[in-house]
Amino acid sequence: MDKNTYKLLTPGPLTTTATVKEAMQIDRCTWDEDYKSMTQGIRSGLLKLAHADNGAYTTVLMQGSGTFGVESVLSSVISSTDKVLVLQNGAYSKRMVEMCDYHGIKYVVYEEDYAHIPDPMIVEDVLKSDGNITHIAMVHSETTSGLLNDIASIGALAQKYNKKFIVDAMSSFGGVDINVPQLGITYLVSSANKCIQGVPGFSFIIANVEDLKKTKGIARSLSLDLYAQWETMENDGGKWRFTSPTHVVAAFAQAMQELEAEGGVTARNARYAATNRALRKGMEELGFKAYIDEAHQGPIITTFFYPADCTFTFAEMYAYLKEHGYVIYPGKLTDAETFRLGNIGEIYMDDVEKILAIFKEFAGLKK
Fold first, then answer.
1. Which residues partner with 109 through β-bridges?
2. Which helix (H) or strand (E) holds 342?
3. Residue 289: CB partners within 8 Å, gap ≥ 6?
4. For residue range 215-228, what is the model confidence (pLDDT) as tens digits?
5. What is the number of other CB atoms lying within 10 angstroms of the CB of residue 215?
6. Which residues face 190 on adjacent strands?
7. Which of 3, 52, 317, 321 is the most exposed place for a label (fewest CB within 10 A)?
8. Which of 92, 163, 121 shows the shortest CA–CA distance to 333?
9. Is the dihedral of CA 94, 73, 138, 199 positive or negative?
10. Residues 36, 246: contact at Cβ < 8 Å?
11. Can you tell me whether residue 191 is helix, strand or coil?
């Protein structure tokens, strides 16, 4: 087969439909009213997905990857007198801490093992002991491991103690139902190339309007100024401040239509969860044990240990799978040799059967 034609078993970028790709074949003008209307449609559609179309929330689209979106929020809404509690149990929450260091943001870290979710009782103790904390920040789907963190319990604490709640829902929004107002989320960040199944190029932020209005002048970056980006989009009917990724925006608009046609977040979550369970079960039967216990395994990506009698390298396994039509992810843990299999995007049960057969064949060749 063509070495450049394969499906992605990754947590984004992911395998998209032919129609999402086709949406990028037209060149668009950033000032055009049709294009601005497309942006506005995306903004309102995202609010509906977040159960936040009640007037209390708004959507801001931000050029760049999901990391740009997270950094935009942290550097734009936490003032010099504020302090954020970062719940760290993976590489992406650790990246939040790095952002705070870069921007001189005051913070405290509650760190957990990569296989464990943050303990709400410990979080509450930290909040009780440090009255200077104004914000809580955490990752929902930690693709370092495949863990799905409990944002509901932390959101309840944020509301109880009147803290602003920032959630990196990069690899969960659109694939896991998230009721933003109900969970007390002040800012939710996700990306075009994740569960909504668009292509890379921009991130988006679901923001509480009243809190966002209070952040004017806080931003530590011109291009990542969240308030300024929102103000321009609000006042100019969907206009981005700086050049936007027009082809990516068009692909995302198409992807949102396809999410709705599939049956919305509920149907997509059911597909993801089913393929994830089947992949996890099949891999464990082949001797590849999952890193995360079933109770905390998210439906997006799974981390696997190598078999005890493993005689092959990741590079060998990667090359074999790619040759047979699938690309996988290396592990991201620091304390164990692992690899990761994502199952979002255009991945279905017949793919799972093919993937397991390829792994079985590869393992047989290496014995």
1. 86
2. strand 338-342
3. 304, 305
4. 999 999 999 999 99
5. 19
6. 204
7. 3
8. 92
9. negative
10. no
11. strand
| CA torsion through residues 2, 358, 310, 341, sign | positive
- For tokens 């493993």, the residue is 310
Distance CA 67, CA 139 (A): 12
Alpha-carbon gap, residue 364 to 367, rounded angstroms:
5
Q: Which of 230, 175, 177, 216 is nearest to 58 (CA)?
A: 230
- Whether the CB-CB separation of 97 and 81 falls below 8 Å is answered with no
Q: Are 182 and 1 in contact (CB under 8 A)?
A: no
User: Which residue reads 């995360």 in tokens?
Assistant: 292
pLDDT in tens, 42-94: 999 999 999 999 999 999 999 999 999 999 999 999 999 999 999 999 999 99
348 contacts 15 by C-beta, under 8 angstroms:
no
Q: Are 191 and 319 in contact (CB under 8 A)?
A: no
Check if the beta carbon of residue 68 is closer than 8 Å to that of residue 224.
Answer: yes
Tokens describing residue 139: 């990752």
Q: Model pTM?
A: 0.96
Name the DSSP letter for residue 119: P
**Rounded Cα gap, residues 113 and 122, in angstroms:** 14
Task: Tell me how far apart the alpha carbons of residues 164 and 207 are, in angstroms, rounded to a whole number.
Answer: 11
CA distance 164 to 133: 9
Contact assessment for residue 223 and residue 25, using Cβ atoms and an 8 Å cutoff: no
User: CA nearest 279: which of 324, 333, 339, 343?
Assistant: 343
295: tokens are: 């109770």
